[in-house]
Write a structure and sequence with these properties.
The complex is a heterotrimer of chains A (about 325), B (about 425) and C (about 290). With about 325 residues, chain A is an all-alpha fold. Chain A is built from 14 helices and two strands, in the order H-H-H-H-H-E-H-H-H-H-E-H-H-H-H-H. In chain A, about 75% of the residues lie in helices and about 0% in strands. Chain B is about 40% helix and about 15% strand. Chain C is mostly helical. Chain C has eleven helices and two strands. Chain C has a two-stranded antiparallel sheet with strand order 1-2. Chain C is globular and about 60 Å long. Chain C starts with a helix and ends in a 9-residue tail after the last helix. The chains are: A mainly alpha (about 325), B alpha/beta (about 425), C mainly alpha (about 290). Chains in contact: A-B, A-C, B-C. Chains B and C meet through helix 2, strand 7, helix 7, helix 8 and helix 9 of B and helix 1, strand 2, helix 9 and helix 10 of C.
Chain lengths: ~325, ~425, ~290
């Protein structure tokens, strides 16, 4: 765990760097190889959920506070940018960071009661708070209520944050957002705050006795996590152009965000990315191949696979990769 | 070694599907995209609707000379050299984002020339926006939110009447009933689920109650798929309206009837906004307790008396899928026929030609299994202007037409009898 | 409005017993092994289908098929432990959540695959109709369900507190290593706990099936309330689950009447948040 603390300066062309560069190149080149809107759209969703999973990971993975209520931040983000645009005509480019800020602010109100709780009490409290927020939005007519909010179709332009003829801008914006979250996580890993986060997860009592202000650092992790989840929500709203409480605030959104991180590997930099790259296409392909029959066979397969991963590699697929690497190295 | 199993399966699935690419559409086949919820709480309706569309396609593709439907007598689409209609079915799982992305997949990857869907208004909202941008006709068969056809879309068409038409006819019916039988119905109350469907329905019912001179004594909004409706029914009891107007999906509809019975609450009339109360499995499920409920509807089996076509199609459907045709399935069936007719008249699979043909659609009432005056789309909004509804009442586990009075096969039973005297 | 209150409180009370019974199984598993079972609602669904099919295929009334449902669910619970849960005992909490979450998705969709997404109802159960008492209406099936739930909860409590096996269960929950030194096979105890927990919803499902509709995702209607019930009562506490269930049932219906049905769950959840602010371990829980 402490390995990341004493990070050796990487050599000019270490294998890790090489792999990283290959991936960066592949990410930049993808939409030029796969030109169909559907293929690009799928990858936008993958990148968005990779970002959301990593945002969750900052709180749930590194700090060990397992939240099943991240839909609150996602939804608040989506509603913030959408309402700003509809009611005040604010451009989504301001709406995006504003969504993050509002979500981070809300997270502090969520954190106050929840961080008094431990373990499963914390999990249930986050679920309950998310349910309350969803019910409030469903009954709040000014914010569209159950009808939801539709963003008007504007002429497509970078300024309007709307693109129809090509999905390229959406793709590169989501890629940039993911890159930012990854960079922030990377920096956190090596920072004092990141060290405290892990200390809180591994042994809160020891951390406290060493003088770490546990609640403040939990609040900080929550704020960072909520900020990026909120930004992701705003991007979603801008991408789908229609939001309602059921699609952005519901329990299933919280579950999916967490699932991405857990299946990929919590507390790792690349785990959530791996999780998104496997889970989203997996559910897409099983649904396309089996879902049309109307017998839910796709979800049967999906459910079995999730259970299998949890049973055979509880630390996530990233750990499986590490294991393979170790196996290869031993030879 | 077991640990590798999970990864192995994952990898196998990826490889199996990664190779799939755009299949070149073979000639003589016209692909239509079908987008419905096929998993989750409303899967039952989604699956039934798709079945109805499959039956319509069978009638179009094979020869059914006895049926007075467009394209029934011939095999395939004659103006396209007898091309067969082929369905590409997709599940949107009630997720607006999936609705949009599945629409794009159907269009760009499967090469469908038009889409029928998507049951829930929230999904139709995003799915039709995707079709709009890609310039492919989107024919909406069942969503009833009035907002949908007012978006100024070029490629959106809707065969079903929307909530305003339905709420209008429900309250107009009450007024006519009052006048005909001098029943002194003065007050109504809405009870509705809190998502888009219920909220829109209650709002329009309030508007038309005012127009037709009824007092709304309560609007009870409850959370969709609740575990208990006691306090909701008690609130209605306290408000004591003459007629209760429920808007619910099927699970809540079943629970509502059971709760009313348990609490011994029987208003003078219960008139539902279709959907949960008219879905095929509702009456079989609640049994005798469903009797005497009124509902607005777009289909009733007894319409076969005045229109033999209804009986023929309903019997075929029963034979194939062992289920009764009802409002949802009859509308999906109709949409498929209307679309195929338009494509045939277009004589090509060019989207613009299909759109022009849809705009020129004029299916007369005789060729429909639903009690509409026909199908003719508004040139600007794409809304069918000839859509209409009926009021049905349940007798012995079957809905029968009671209004308009000239189509009625049975006299209305009024008031709703108390639970102990039935 | 005021004269409706007794009726609403009474109905809420009856619902509360069912919430409690569903929650008892959850809280038992948690108490013994620190795991929250997200597939608990699906166990409820399975038991309702067991009862439904017995009614439909061999015309066995839910009252008589209740023991069969209990037995089947006991086996399902024990199997769940043997096949899935046993392997994630040492895993991080997030992985445990997902093992049972995957199971939930699997059971829901398997039910749709096997039995179609249609809604079902047991049409003419022996238990039907209602009793009128002092102007209050009581559904007989609801009344029997409440009494049954109370008895089942009491039985589980008695079993844990008063029997030899129950004490072994407590010993394992307290300290697994010490228990194994005393010669208690903890894996056996865990299997038993899962069996009993599932058997509890086997009772609840059979009782509910008398008046509630049945479909593949019916579990989700109840399971959220069950989670909150468990946390409110205190994880691991059977009496806590009973008290919490009753409180939530009554508050829910009362809030529906006096505030607005649209906010009835919000009020229940807000109440939960207030309680855990004061008592983070729930009403009767221990840290």
């Amino acid at each position: 765990m402490e390995q990341t603390q004493v990070r050796r300066p990487p050599r000019a062309l270490s294998p890790q760097r090489l792999v990283l560069f290959v991936f960066m190149f592949a990410a930049l080149a993808y939409p030029w190889v796969f030109r169909l809107p559907f293929q690009r759209r799928l990858m936008v969703v993958v990148l968005l959920y990779a970002m959301l999973g990593q945002a969750w990971n900052i709180l749930g993975g590194y700090t060990g506070q397992v939240s099943l209520g991240h839909a609150v931040f996602f939804g608040i983000g989506a509603y913030t940018s959408t309402l700003l645009h509809l009611k005040l005509g604010v451009t989504p480019w301001i709406g995006l960071p504003a969504a993050g800020l509002v979500a981070a602010l809300v997270s502090q109100f969520v954190g106050y009661p929840c961080f008094r709780l431990k373990g499963h009490y914390f999990v249930i409290a986050t679920i309950v708070l998310a349910q309350i927020v969803q019910a409030l939005f469903t009954n709040w007519d000014w914010a569209g209520g159950a009808l939801g909010l539709r963003l008007p179709l504007l002429p497509e332009s970078l300024l309007n944050f709307q693109f129809f003829s090509t999905k390229l801008p959406y793709y590169y914006i989501s890629l940039a957002l993911l890159a930012i979250v990854l960079a922030v996580t990377y920096l956190l890993e090596g920072s004092k705050a990141g060290y405290y986060f892990r200390a809180i997860k591994e042994d809160p009592d020891a951390a406290r006795s060493l003088g770490v202000d546990i609640t403040s650092y939990k609040m900080l992790a929550m704020a960072i996590s909520a900020f990026f989840t909120g930004v992701g929500g705003a991007f979603y709203a801008q991408f789908v152009l229609y939001i309602d409480p059921e699609s952005v605030l519901a329990f299933k959104t919280s579950v999916l965000i967490m699932l991405i991180a857990v299946v990929g590997g919590i507390g790792t930099l690349w785990g959530p990315v791996l999780g998104a790259f496997i889970l989203i296409p997996l559910s897409e392909f099983t649904r396309v191949a089996l879902g049309g029959a109307g017998r839910a066979l796709d979800l049967v397969v999906y459910g079995i696979l999730i259970t299998l991963v949890a049973v055979f590699e509880p630390r996530g697929l990233w750990a499986l990769g590490e294991r393979i690497k170790a196996l290869v190295a031993r030879r | 070694m077991k640990r590798w199993l999970a990864l192995l399966i994952l990898a196998a699935m990826m490889v199996a599907y990664a190779g799939r690419d755009v299949p070149a559409a073979p000639p003589q086949v016209v692909k239509i995209g079908i987008l419905f919820p096929l998993t989750g709480p409303v899967a039952a309706t989604g699956v039934a609707s798709v079945n109805a569309i499959k039956l319509a396609v069978e009638i179009i593709n094979d020869k059914y000379p006895d049926l007075k439907l467009p394209l029934a007598a011939t095999s395939g689409l004659p103006n396209l050299g007898g091309a067969k209609v082929e369905l590409v079915i997709a599940d949107h799982q009630m997720n607006p984002e999936l609705g949009a992305s599945e629409t794009e997949r159907l269009i760009t990857q499967q090469g469908v020339v038009a889409i029928i869907g998507a049951y829930a208004s929230a999904i139709t909202e995003t799915a039709s926006a995707s079709a709009e941008r890609l310039g492919i006709p989107f024919l909406n068969d069942q969503s009833t939110s009035p907002r949908l056809h007012r978006r100024g879309f070029k490629w959106f068409f809707r065969t079903t009447p929307h909530d305003e038409v339905f709420s209008d006819l429900m309250l107009r019916f009450l007024k006519e009933l009052n006048e005909k039988r001098n029943l002194g119905i003065k007050s109504v109350a809405t009870i509705y689920e809190n998502t888009l469907f219920g909220t829109d329905s209650s709002r329009t019912q309030n508007n038309f109650a005012k127009i037709y001179g009824f007092q709304v004594v309560a609007n009870v909004r409850y959370p969709n798929q609740t575990s208990d409706l006691t306090s909701e029914i008690q609130s209605l009891k306290a408000a004591n309206p003459d007629v209760v107007l429920p808007t619910s999906y099927i699970s809540d509809a079943i629970l509502m009837v059971r709760t009313m019975k348990t609490l011994d609450y029987a208003p003078r009339g219960i008139m539902a906004q279709g959907v949960g109360f008219t879905e095929g499995s509702f009456l079989p499920t609640v049994g005798r307790d469903g009797n005497f409920i009124l509902s607005r509807e777009v289909f009733a089996d007894d319409l076969r008396k005045s229109k033999p076509l209804v009986g023929q199609v309903a019997d075929l459907f029963k034979k194939r899928y062992n289920a009764d045709l009802e409002g949802a399935t009859a509308r999906s069936f109709t949409a498929m026929i209307v679309l195929a007719d338009a494509i045939n008249r277009a004589g090509s699979t060019n989207p613009n030609a299909i759109r022009q043909a849809l705009l020129a659609t004029n299916v007369p009432a005789e060729q429909l299994i639903v009690p509409w005056k026909g199908v003719k789309f508004d040139q600007r909004t794409g809304q069918n202007v000839l859509g209409d509804g009926i009021i049905v009442q349940a007798f012995d586990g079957k809905y029968q037409t009671v209004w308009p009075f000239n189509l009625a096969s049975r006299e209305i039973a009024w008031p709703f009898p108390s639970w102990s005297r039935r | 409005m005021l004269q409706q209150i007794p009726q609403v409180v009474l109905s809420g009370l009856l619902n509360g017993f069912i919430y409690a019974l569903v929650a008892v199984g959850l809280t038992l598993i948690y108490g013994v092994m620190d795991i929250v079972n997200f597939a608990h609602g699906e166990f409820l669904m399975l038991s309702m289908y067991v009862v439904f099919w017995l009614y439909t295929l061999v015309h066995l009334d839910p009252i008589f098929s209740l023991p069969i449902s209990v037995l089947v669910l006991f086996i399902v619970g024990a199997l769940t432990h043997k096949l899935v849960v046993r392997r994630v005992l040492k895993a991080p909490m997030s992985a445990q959540i997902f093992a049972t979450f995957g199971l939930m998705v699997f059971l829901q969709s398997a039910a749709q695959f096997l039995w179609s997404p249609n809604y079902r109802l047991i049409k003419e159960p022996l238990l039907s109709g209602r009793i009128s008492l002092l102007g209050l209406s009581l559904g007989k099936p609801q009344l029997v369900a409440a009494v049954g739930a109370l008895l089942a909860t009491g039985f589980v409590y008695w079993f844990i507190e008063r029997t030899e096996t129950g004490r072994a269960l407590q010993a394992v929950a307290e300290d697994q290593e010490a228990a194994s030194l005393m010669g208690i096979n903890s894996d056996r105890i865990f299997t038993l706990a899962w069996g009993i927990a599932a058997a509890c919803v086997g009772v609840a499902g059979a009782l509910l099936a008398n008046y509630y509709y049945i479909f593949p995702t019916v579990g989700t209607v109840f399971v959220l309330m069950a989670f909150v019930t468990v946390a409110l009562g205190g994880f691991g506490s059977v009496p806590g689950a009973l008290i919490a269930g009753v409180i939530m049932g009554v508050v829910e219906t009362l809030a529906g009447l006096l505030i607005s049905p649209a906010y009835k769950q919000v009020v229940v959840f807000a109440l939960y948040m207030v309680v855990v602010l004061v008592r983070p371990q729930g009403l009767l829980g221990e840290w």
